[in-house]
Amino acid sequence: MTRGRALRLLAGSLVVLAAGCTSPAPEPPPSDDARPEATSAPIEPEESPGGAPVLGEEGEPVSPSPEPSDDEDDEDGDRGRRRGPELLSEPSPFPEWMTRPSPDDGLCPTPTVRVSDADELQDALDDAGPGTVIGLAPGVYIGKFVTTASGTADAPARLCGEADAVLDGDNQRGGYVLHLDGAQHWVLSGFTVRNGQKGVMADGTTGTTISGLTVYGIGDEGIHLRAHSTDNLVAHNTISDTGRRREKFGEGVYVGTANSNWCRITDCDPDLSDRNQVIGNAVYAGTSESVDIKEGTSDGLVEGNQFDGSTITGADSWVDVKGNDWTIRDNVGHGTPMDGFQTHDVYEGWGEQNEFLDNEGSLDDPEGFLVAMRPANDNVARCSNRLLGDIGELSNERCV
User: Fold this and answer.
1) How far is CA 84 from CA 45, 64, 75, in A?
2) Distance CA 378, CA 313 (A)
3) How far apart are CA 150 and CA 351, in angstroms?
4) Burial profile 243-275: b = 16 or more Cβ within 10 angstroms, e = fewer
5) What is the pTM for the complete model shown?
6) Which stretches within 251-326 are classed as H helix?
7) Cα–Cα distances in Å, from 366 out to 287, 310, 390?
8) Which of 64, 107, 122, 240 has the most crowded Cβ, counting Cβ within 10 A?
9) CA distance 273 to 265
10) How far apart are CA 354 and CA 397, in angstroms?
11) What is the mean pLDDT of residues 27-34?
12) Is the pLDDT score of 258 beyond 60?
């Protein structure tokens, strides 16, 4: 029996026992669980945008909690005790200048298990292992889903569906819609993720592919690789409408952990989320960077992505690079409060030896740079980068 089903049965039993009492029993204090399954009101049956039935179950009442802190990098917010911003049933319109990513159709073989509601999905995630292929039927799956199971490099576990299979967290203030919690070697392909504080969270995952997803309506960042997550691929996803809880935390793709949170996430050591690749994604309608690469990460690649920064209010660039030895190439962007790509030195020994080449984009600020290295720190802007239009400059450092 899943945790959510057990809680609902317990709640029903308490209601029966309380019938006829002159006063209700006091509610228990809210849990500190970082991934609550509860929502603030029962979910009424409805139709999804594509007409498929909503397949999730009734939510459970929750208690209010304090406002989130103003920490530099608020990883878990207020833990889901209020619904927060209006939930979305569709993403913002796709920018006309962008080309929709083309997912890899070869990632998902015939399912070994098929699921059609939220409980079946969580059970399948619990039972997954090498070679498991979970097939999502069309519909809306209400809940916060987590797996600790792993595949192998030769036989990854897979979760697959079309865009009309929608994982809906039903709360943009707290919780992860889909959490790989120490789970290794997964393929996540094709489906939609919406309405969570974070969309897809990968903690300590290795060799995982996140491809062809539609991610939107997210309180903070859309896809986050964290806690020594290494050798992963985030490719051909469409990510939008992030930062609806806190503007400064509305990144599209986020790699690593800010040093202010290393003691909480990685035992006070740098979060060595290394050799990750962010390729061919379209990121728009967010409030912060399209890609944020944190100090502690190394040897990654950001290639062939499209960035629309016209709605950025909590940052001033499409891409921030605070790690070392990253390659940023062949990306295109339009609309930004200041710069296109930035490097930063926020922790000693980090923000160094990153290379920018073959990128292009247009700026809105005459004082902005397509590539701004703040400071240079042996970072390199190649002359193959191209500023589109006549606003701003190519780089604050001489290109080579």
Assistant:
1) 21, 11, 17
2) 29
3) 33
4) bbbbbbbbbbbbbbbbbebbeebbeeebbbbbb
5) 0.82
6) 262-265
7) 21, 15, 9
8) 240
9) 12
10) 13
11) 37
12) yes
Q: Find the helix or strand (DSSP H, E) in which 388 lies.
A: strand 386-388
Amino acid at 308: D
Q: Which pLDDT value is given to residue 104?
A: 86
The confidence score (pLDDT) of residue 105 equals 85
Cβ–Cβ < 8 Å for 216, 88: yes
Q: Give the per-residue pLDDT at 13.
A: 42
For helices 3-18 and 118-127, the axis angle rounded to 10 degrees is 130
Residue 241 near residue 285 (C-beta atoms within 8 A):
yes
Q: Which residue has the tokens 């819609």?
A: 177
Distances (CA, A) of 295 to 205, 290, 316, 351: 18, 17, 18, 7
Token duo for residue 302: 């950001």
As a whole number of angstroms, the distance between CA 393 and CA 10 comes to: 63
The rounded distance, in Å, linking the Cα atoms of 167 and 120 is 13
Structure tokens at 249: 């935390």
Average pLDDT, the chain: 85
CB atoms within 10 A of CB 230: 19
Dihedral Cα 322, 297, 357, 386, nearest 10 deg: -40
- Residue 279's Cβ-side half-sphere holds a number of Cα atoms within 13 Å equal to 15
Residue 32: CB atoms within 10 Å: 9
Q: State residue 234's pLDDT score.
A: 98
Q: List, for residues 58-82, the tens digit of each pLDDT value.
A: 333 333 333 333 334 555 554 434 4
CB atoms within 10 A of CB 183: 22
| Cα gap 362→284, rounded to integer Å | 15
What are the tens digits of pLDDT across the range 142-196? 999 999 999 999 999 999 999 999 999 999 999 999 999 999 999 999 999 999 9
The structure tokens listed for 134 are 């979970």
What is the distance between the alpha carbons of residues 188 and 200, in angstroms, rounded to a whole number?
10
